[in-house]
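Exercise 7.
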Amino acid sequence: MTDRYAIYFAPPADSPLARFGAAWLGRDAETGARPARPAVEGFSDEHLERITDIPRGYGFHATLAPPMRLAEGCTPDALDEALASFAASREPFQSPPLVLAALDGFLALVLSDASAPMQALEDDIIRTFHRFRAPPTPAEYIRREAGTHTPRQEELLRQWGYPFVLDEFRFHMTLTCELDQDERCALQQALEALTVPLCARPLAVDGIALFEQEAKGAPFRLTRRYPFGA
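Solution. The predicted structure, written as tokens, is:
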């Protein structure tokens, strides 16, 4: 398998949000460090390690363009150059504060209200960087098609290679694997105290980040940040 690349929002490395995300998932995608996870009443560390396993592999982020193999003729250097140029043309903005929520069976930090600038950013990234995306392999397409999608999501999957883009985009920073209802409710209640301080102010968005997966099953690494503005 060749490298895969993803374009994500990742909070600044020294921010409380980034420190929480790395500690909660048990891995800093930028440095590789494994900070101590905060204690949660009623959940052992082994339990939390298990229910954060999948998001830990992707790193703490919000997806703007989902993982992709590079299309034939496209190179990592060309992607890097295009990302730098794209970011230089954008202006920083603020989105509504985050809020802890259940989303399709897992817990995530989501925006507390709609954000036109965030939607515009995701739309532009999807359209600008689609030329870098290799078509899904038959196995990838079957795996993505296996979900319960609406007709619109199926249309997006066929056109863009992923069903949750453009008007189906939902900004979220995943915190857990899928959980059963009782476990999810208990953890959500316990997590409130940890996340409320992170949700007190609007979310500042002043750049994007490139994540890379070097081999199948390897964790994604944050390899470069692209600040907005010249």
